Amino acid sequence: MYSVTAESAHHPDILALITALDRYQSALYPAESNHLLDLTELPDDSLILMIIRDAQLNAVGCGAVVLNGDGTGEMKRVYIDPAHRGQRLGDKLLAALEDEALSRCCHTVRLETGIKQHAAIRLYQQCGYERCPAFAPYHADPLSLFMEKTLVADVRLAAL
């Protein structure tokens, strides 16, 4: 049994998961194509951060949405420990992040991922994300893929 709950960017379990993610991405891409945002530098009110724990309360995954204040957010730092992949934890994590984003008037979530992360790309596509052009602050990069998902059919509903 796994649980998905909110967590602080400063929590040691989050920091350990992000360190593992950074190591993984740094092995795949050059530094200029790695967009490794430090979540601890963001104001709490602009960050949704979730952690996945197993039945023994070990941290096995994390993910975040950075809220931009304009009804959009950016999915960041999504990671599932390799030993726990294949159990649809990514689906559960994204759904929890999207639900919380929507409750904070975020109607659209965008993301940047690397072209070599095939499992992540499949996850995002299965969860309804579609390819889109590069968005600020990014520029087109042959090693990056940009995606977005509208969380509500009528963006005016997100403001209610």
From TrEMBL:
Pfam families: Acetyltransf_1 (PF00583). Its EC number is 2.3.-.-. InterPro entries: Acyl_CoA_acyltransferase, Bact_Acetyltransf, GNAT_dom. Keywords: Acyltransferase, Transferase. CDD domains: NAT_SF. GO terms for molecular function: acyltransferase activity. SUPFAM superfamilies: Acyl-CoA N-acyltransferases (Nat). Signal peptide: none annotated. It is an enzyme of class 2 (transferase). It comes from the Bacteria. This is GNAT family N-acetyltransferase.
